[in-house]
Structures are given as C-alpha cells and as structure tokens.
Amino acid sequence: MLLVAPFLSFFFAFLLHVVNAENVYNSSEAYSAGELGQTPSQSFYSSNYTPAAWNWVVESNDTANIPSGYLFMALQGDDTVQPGAVIYDSSGELVWSGADYGAVTSFRVVSYLDAPHILMWQGNTTRQGIGSVLLIDQNYSIVNNITAGLSIFLGTILIVTKRAEFTSNDTTLTAAYRAVNMNLTTYGGPENGWLYDSVAQEVSIDTGVTIWNWSAIDHVDARLCYSSIGDHDSSEDDPWNFFDLNSIEKDNSSNYLISSRYCSAIYYVSGSSGEVLWQVGGANSSFTMGNGTQFFYQHDARWNDGQQTQISLFDNGGTDLVTNETTSRGLIIQLNFDSWTVELVQEFLPYTSQVSEDQGSIQVQSNGNVLMGYVV
Prior knowledge:
Layout: E1 8-11, E2 25-26, H1 29-33, E3 55-56, E4 70-75, E5 84-88, E6 94-98, E7 104-112, E8 115-124, E9 130-136, E10 142-146, E11 158-166, E12 171-182, E13 193-204, E14 210-215, H2 216-219, E15 240-241, E16 245-250, E17 256-260, E18 265-269, E19 276-281, E20 288-289, E21 299-303, E22 310-315, E23 329-336, E24 341-348, E25 361-364, E26 370-373
Parallel strand pairs: 2-3, 13-15, 20-24
Antiparallel strand pairs: 1-4, 4-5, 5-6, 7-8, 8-9, 9-10, 11-12, 12-13, 13-14, 16-17, 17-18, 18-19, 21-22, 22-23, 23-24, 25-26
C-alpha cells in the first residue's frame, strides 16, 4: 500500500463513528496519471468533509497482513482540499475529521491516565510554525493545551516548531527555534548575524513545569552541518537555520535521541548534562557507516528495539536545494557498540522512486509491517 501523506499511524479503536465514502480507488491509472486532479478527494452522503482519497496498489480486500485499527493522518500541502487531522479505517473510508482544528502535525494516540488520548500539534504550519500541543480525550474534548515554557527559556522569544512527542511519564517533548544574535564570521557569515538555535524541552503535562532544556548551538559544531549560511540573510528576519531538530525520543536511561535534518545526523544526548554522547551519520559520525546505511536530511528517528541497538528513520535523500540520492526510503539500521559500525537491516523503497524534499515518517507495526508517509 502506498500512501502519499506525512505522519501515518495505525492505532486500535477509539470510540469512533464511521461514515461511508463514495470514492476509494484500486490501482486506478487515472488516479496515478493525475486525471482526477492533483489531490483527489472523497465525498460523503453523511458529511461535507473532503479528506484525501486513497489509491490502493494492493487490492483493498487483501487484508491478511494489515493490522486491525485505524489510520491517523495529518494532511498538509497547498493542493490539499482538506488539510488537517483525519482518521480512516483500513479500507480508506473516513472515520473522523479534525478539520475544525486546522493544520496539525504529530497526530497520534497516546496513553494518559491509563486511557487512550489523542496528541496533536496545532498551529500555523508556515515556516517553522507557531502553535501548541493539544491532548484530547475519548470524547474528543481538549483536556490539556500544552504551550510549555519555551517562550521564557533564557529570556528569549521562540518560534515553536511542529514537533510533539509523549513519554510514559506523562510528559511531552517539544522543539522550538530560538533566534540568536551572534558573531557568525566563524561560519562565513556577518559579524552581527542571526541564527536559529534548535531548542528541545521536556514539559510535565500535569503541572506545565519544564523538566529539561537542550540547545543545539551549545552542543553541536555548526560548521559540521550542511545548511549553507549563504542561503540566508543571517538577519533577524531571516536567521540561519543550521540544525533543524525534527524528532526527539526519550529512552529508559533518561537520555534523548535527537534527529537533525540539516546536519544529516542523529545524536544521542545525555539527559543530565546535555552532552552529545555519540552521533550516527553526518560529518562527524561516531560510527563507521556500512553499505547502504548513509542517510541525508532524515526525519523520524526512533529506537526500534528494547536493547537500543536498532534505529528506524525516514531517509529523505535531499532537500529542495540538494539531492544526494535517487529516492527517499525508510531505513532500519543496526548499531554495533563493540566495533562502532552501522549495518543495514532493511530498507523500504516507495512504489515510485522519488525524493521527498521535506518531512516524512516511518513506523514499524506490531506485526512487523512498516508504514511510511512522505511529501511529494
């Protein structure tokens, strides 16, 4: 099954009311050729919502290897008829629409107070994005609006990015850009320049207290990253974004796995000191990268096993300015801490070879299937 959309997730039942769609396609040549428009949509007898329509590559009645549950999608794009949160059933029909929330990301089910809740980031998705994290209960009521303490971190104003994660300790992990005025001559920029520092925070849902702060510029050498300072004015209106933190995960050791798009690297960060304990990929990798393991401008880096030796990630392979690979792909890589090498476990290629210039996700299902989403 090929789905062209970011942030895809299967989850179990969530007190939903199903409505019936008219248009779900099976291997439609007209769909693939664009004869149905750039963004084919569904229409409903019981609803005036217009979520994206699916085009199955595998027949929709071939469900033997599809896990039960619902598909959560956060749809974006200028051509999207209805951007925002959508829940589908496994046949591609609409179950619930969150169109009233507008554009969202990080749309998923989490467990909070021993009950399933929806976690989503809501806000302005232009540029870095300004918004907040919502926690929604089984009755679709907002039980918490998590704005965190980002706006007062180090006494500066930040632009909150479109990232939100959840931990088993009832905390959220959020990221933001902090505009910093500094001398950029070391990096080939102006003496009185500006950069965007990627900031990570862990915040208590119950109290709103910030538990942990981390600053990329304090711990990563920007000269080892691949975002050209010449592509920006390095002014207050157009700071140099050298890092671009696009995923964060906390482990049982209270350390953090942080993905940097523009450094093409994944960092393992100490929860106590903020020190980078090691990195995989990028210009200063702690590991020797094996055949097929090098990635570029990646997203959605996650631990894939309980031993914390496997990582899944979405390898974009390029941006709108740079192309390093012929196609984006999903990856599972194995870290060897004895030899400090990385081996390829498996790669997952899209139905049609293409580079996703921005965003993307990969999720390993409980039955071993892998669900990928990307922007084209």
